[in-house]
Amino acid sequence: MTNAAEEFRDTYTRGSYEEDLELGFTGSIYHPNFMNFNLDTTLGLTQIRNRHLEEKTKDNEIVSNVYLFTNWLQEKPFGFGLYLNKQDTQKKYDFFDNVKINEFSYGCIGHWTNDILPLRVSAEKSRKTEEKELYPSTEDELTVNGSLSNILAEGKINTKLDYRYYTFQRTIPDIYELYGNSHVVDFRNTAQFGKRLDKNRLISALRYMNLKGTRNSENVTFSENFNIGITENLTNSVLYSLNSSRNDIMTIMTHEASVQLQHQLYESLTSGIAIHGNFSRAVNFSENKVGPEASLKYRKNIKIGTLNLLYALQYDFKGRTSSAQLIQINDESLTLRDGIVTYLGNPQGDMDSVVVTDPTGTTEFIKDSDYILQAEGDLVQIIRVPGGNIPNDSEILVDYVAVGSSSYKYTLLKQTGRLQTDFLSDKISVYYQFLTLRYPVVEGTEDLVLDIITNHKVGLMVKLPIVSGSIEYDKHNSTVSPYASLRLGQGVSLSIYRSQLNVQGSESFSWLSGTESPQQFYEVLVHYLLPVSKSLVFNLRCSGHVQKGTQLESSFFSFKSGFNFKRGLLAFTVLYDFELINNPNQERVYNHLFKLGFKREL
User: What angle is formed at CA 334 by the lines to CA 369 and CA 553, rounded to 5 degrees?
Assistant: First the structure.
């Protein structure tokens, strides 16, 4: 028996059939070091077939693309390159007016190599217009990059200055207009001194970012990291950083400092002690966190392999004084990875206030297109959308508003440990790790959610010449959001005659509290490579990704196969690519790509 969503999915499909012809020429004019060029042209025809219940439509799309890159004086100390890229797309619909999409970009890159201030610069200007009767749009972008570097004192002092300017404007008349420009300046200086150059080091960094437009923000970060080897077995590290952040809602300044001593007690035993502090100030609240920490690391070669032990203990005092019940969280760093449950760092977050950007803070991702939000008790889970603009296992920055207690004080006791044994020259590894969070003393936390956590992980990893595999069980006991996860991984690599076959798979199951079925992730990749001759290579690549048990239930399958030929100055490619996508909006999409490419070196 199927539900309404499944019936709708079965009756709404979209198929895409694409035929591409590619021609390319590579060569030089006068002399290879005077000017090299690369000219690529593409002519493609895409036929789209839509079926919704008994209704069928046919759409055609014609794409032409020209890309030219020239590289001048590549072996001179002042070389440069010029390029342009033009793509025109015309879509013809059965029941709608034609749509014309024009994309044009051009730019330059250059370098000046010298012994004082080596310089690298680049600039790109692009425009994309969609000419249609309903919702025409225009996008303009300009990016300028510059980099200066200097090495002095026989390589002991290394200085680098980077600058990036980015401006954009996206307009749909009577719908929306997004615009803005940003300046990013990065300065970094590394100085080595004394007899122990590998231990005596001072690293200074300064970063300034300014974003103005429909979203305004400004951020300044300054840090000093001083490392010194006091003796052969005793090292010292001092870190200080200052961060000032301002946006349309608030301004916050944070000071962070730590002092650490590390002692090599024996050949296999290392101990460390440290004290750290974090102090934040804003108009309506102040927050302090300070405390000591200690760690022990042990590594020993035993008869059956290698034994690794790690234990760390951290004790924090944290207090906040605030005149508001709502707090603004800026630039919270999270990593999104399929199969891993990721929450916003503060409970009771307002999902309507969430803004997600890339690590630079300049590119904003789109909700329900690049990521989705899902409430789990008092926490908010964030999940990336496969096929969106957020890569798997990548860092993001999140701004949002959360409900916070006006004033409180508490102490946190954190313990972490890991035991790992490696056998057969690290081919087999067995490990166990734990994490506990406890709050021995609390005061004024009636409206604050303190998460008491006990986390245990146990796993096995096998890395043999032909096969590899892993299994990990993660038990997360929590007063806020307990869950359990099981993660599996497999891999096979075979050399058959002259060919190579690689197969990789992974599965993940996460049982969240209060849910009947787990969040499920399945992924498989098959790659086969066969050199038919010295000039001809056959390639086959298949992959699949399935995600279930979340608001984002989707699947993606692809099949790619073709031949690559290269002999002398001649090269060509024959490729067939198939994709099947089941989108969260219950739309099934088929894509077929046929590509023929030809390239000649002159």
Answer: 35
- For residue 87, give both structure tokens: 């793509």
Mean pLDDT of 26-50: 83
CA distance 272 to 237: 11
Q: Is 219:209 a contact under the CB 8 Å cutoff?
A: yes
Q: What's the CA gap between 507 and 515, in Å, rounded?
A: 19
Query: Across residues 326-355, what is the average pLDDT?
Result: 81
* Nearest CA among 426, 385, 398, 413 for reference residue 551: 385
Residues 384/370, Cβ–Cβ less than 8 Å: yes
The answer to whether 51 touches 34, Cβ cutoff 8 Å, is: no
Whose structure tokens read 């692809």? 558
Whole-number Å distance between alpha carbons of 559 and 543: 7
Q: Which residues have CB under 8 Å from 158's CB, separation 6+?
A: 149, 150, 151, 189, 190, 191
Buried b (16+ CB within 10 A) or exposed e, 78-110: ebbbbbebebebebebeeeeebebebebebebb
- Backbone dihedral region for residue 11 (phi beyond 0: left; psi -120 to 50: alpha; all else: beta): alpha
pLDDT mean across residues, the chain: 85
SS (H, E, C) 292-351: EEEEEEEEEEECCEEEEEEEEEEEEEEEEEECCCEEEEEEEEEEECCCCCCECCCCCECH
C-alpha dist (Å) from residue 305 to 172, 421, 424, 431: 64, 7, 6, 13
Can you give 270-291 as a three-state secondary structure string? Answer: EEEEEEEEEEEEECCEEEEEEE
Which single residue is written with the structure tokens 């102490």? 411
pTM, 2 dp: 0.74
pLDDT number for residue 523: 92
Coil, helix or strand for 353? Answer: helix
Rounded to a whole number of angstroms, the CA Rg of the chain reads 28
255 has pLDDT over 90: yes
Taking a C-beta distance cutoff of 8 angstroms, is the pair 70, 79 a contact? no
Quick one: which of 142, 186, 148 has its CA closest to 165?
A: 142
